[in-house]
Specification:
Distance between the termini: 14 Å
Largest sheet: 6 strands, antiparallel
CATH topology of the largest domain: Immunoglobulin-like
Strand order of the largest sheet: 1-11-10-13-14-16
Number of domains: 2
């Protein structure tokens, strides 16, 4: 599975029309969700001992961002022993910037030193939403371990790219998603796809699979928030070069657990909306 890593690092609906099922994503109301996390002392008192671990996330040098909302997260594997491309839990802290700095603490219930993922988002002052368009700073990175103190000042020192914003925002949400695609004759080729939305024009994570005889399944462990406008952008790598180009074919369709595509493929220059959304071929560390 390919990641859009914020430590390095739109789309309009088109293509085949597939009606969302009753299981389709429904957007929450993020403006009503915000509540600052308790103090670090309070989090520490309730965290307990091993295997739980307190992690303090902080940054300074955030000039001009006083009053901005901050989210800091440690993502940890929910069940150990299955590798890293598995569902993750999210230990999430919320606070605000004051004096150009912030600090917040989270309690990671287990696995804090089993390749945790560290992320932080600073939403622009005056915004109320939780989408990438509200982001002023953002970072997402995979770590080997954490010592319990995460200074993300350097990572938040510069304005992030659009891809960095999407990855950082998606990291705050504990969610997995799966789509089964009935594609017709495409056996043996690779399929690449991501979940996009009006609020998430670039996919935060790319899922890749080899198309078997029968339906293909794409699974995401960090797709981001389940917006009501969510769509699946995908392409079949017809020429096997690992990139999205006009030799391939794909589609953008409303999110549903099962999608059947007939003759509504995007090809040639029309495929650019899929390529732009997935950013396949963009250099990553």
């Amino acid at each position: 599975m390919r990641w859009l890593l914020a430590s390095v690092f739109s789309l309009s609906a088109c293509g085949g029309a597939v009606a969302p099922s009753s299981d389709a994503a429904v957007a929450p109301t993020p403006e009503a969700e915000w509540k600052d996390t308790a103090s670090c002392d309070a989090v520490r008192a309730s965290c307990g001992g091993d295997p739980a671990m307190l992690v303090r996330g902080h940054a300074s040098g955030l000039v001009g961002l006083d009053g901005a909302r901050v989210e800091f997260a440690v993502r940890y594997v929910l069940v150990e022993g299955g590798g890293l491309d598995v569902p993750h839990g999210v230990a999430l802290g919320r606070t605000r910037v004051g004096g150009g700095a912030f600090a917040t603490c989270v309690c990671v219930p287990h696995g804090a030193n089993l390749y945790p993922q560290i992320a932080a988002v600073v939403y622009a002052t005056g915004t109320a939403g939780l989408s990438s368009r509200d982001v002023a700073r953002g970072t997402f990175s995979q770590r080997y371990a954490t010592l319990g103190d995460e200074d993300v000042s350097g990572a938040l020192a510069v304005v992030p790219s659009d891809l960095q914003k999407e990855a950082a925002v998606a990291a705050m949400v504990e969610r997995t998603a799966k789509v089964t695609l009935e594609l017709g004759a495409a056996e043996g080729r690779a399929i690449h796809g991501g979940l996009v939305a009006d609020e998430r024009p670039l996919a935060a994570q790319i899922a890749t699979a080899s198309i078997p005889p029968g339906p293909a399944t794409l699974t995401w462990t960090m797709p981001g928030r389940a917006w009501a406008s969510e769509r699946v952008a995908f392409f079949v790598d017809q020429n096997g070069n690992g990139k999205c180009d006009d030799a391939d074919r794909g589609a953008v369709v409303p999110f549903a657990p099962t999608i059947k595509l007939g003759g509504e493929w995007l090809t040639g220059s029309a495929l650019s909306v899929v390529c732009d959304a997935l950013q396949i071929g963009v250099a990553r560390e």
